[in-house]
Amino acid sequence: MLSEILEFLPCPTPDAWLEEALRQQSVLLIDHANCEKKAAATAMNLLYRYSDRTELLQKMAQLAREELLHFEQVVKLLEQRQIEYAYLSASRYAGGLRSHIRHDRCHVLTDTLIIGAFVEARSCERFARLAPLLDAPLARFYRGLLKSESRHYQDYLFLARLYADEDITPQIERLRAVEHGLISSPDSEFRFHSGVPNLAAVSPAESVQRA
Questions:
Q1: Number of CB atoms found within 10 A of residue 1's CB
Q2: C-alpha span between 158 and 181 (Å, rounded)
Q3: What is the rounded (10 degree) CA torsion for 137, 29, 199, 2?
Q4: Which of 59, 79, 115, 154 has a C-alpha 20 to 30 A away from that of 43?
Q5: What is residue 204's predicted lDDT score, i.e. its pLDDT?
Q6: Torsional sign, CA 122, 41, 92, 132
Q7: Residues 192, 193, 196, 200: is their CA dihedral positive or negative?
């Protein structure tokens, strides 16, 4: 699936982000936990909002279970590495994508599902890029996430096509351009889905605040 994901995404993760991820592994893991928790919450929200969509209910129920399991696994890694699960502000990534959702009723679900596909695809791509650079236990964990994350990408895209009353290709292309901008432009905060690091004014210690 990785080749399909690389074709779906507009650009690879910048090398500068990978370098920053290695420098800020505590922040990486804390925000990864946050991402898993938010992904489960997104799936649960879709379950409640669209209870008449059988295929969506089945796929989002499985996705929510898996994301919560991943959250539990990351929290365990934090404990093993003696990293406090401290407060982190959200990155601009998901919000930047969601700001382009068309809010008329017939398009909200489609756009939300397309965005879910981009989030899962980018996560999968970053796991694959990071794994060869990390210590053995963390590398094994990230490689182990690739299969489920790629399936989540597929599920979101399948549901977007299933429930759309239009060809979704133009909207995918519009959101692909937005995602490219978020990933390739300078970002003042390092997060799991942040763009090119521009952290001159923010030290790694300052980027994590206690709750």
A1: 15
A2: 25
A3: 70
A4: 79
A5: 44
A6: negative
A7: negative
SS3 209: strand
127 within 8 A of 145, measured Cβ to Cβ: yes
Structure tokens at 94: 């998901």
**What is the chain written as a DSSP string?**
-HHHHHHHSSSPPPHHHHHHHHHTHHHHHHHHHHHHHHHHHHHHHHHHHTTT-HHHHHHHHHHHHHHHHHHHHHHHHHHHTT----B-PPPSHHHHHHTT---SHHHHHHHHHHHHHHHHHHHHHHHHHHGGGS-HHHHHHHHHHHHHHHHHHHHHHHHHHHH-SS--HHHHHHHHHHHHHHHHSEESS--TT--EE--TT--TTTT-B--
- Contact yes or no for 157/114 (Cβ under 8 A): yes
Q: Mean pLDDT in each 10-residue stretch from start to end of the chain (211 residues)?
A: 94 97 97 97 96 97 97 97 94 95 90 98 97 96 94 97 96 98 95 88 42 29
pTM score of the predicted model: 0.92
- Residue corresponding to tokens 């982190």: 88
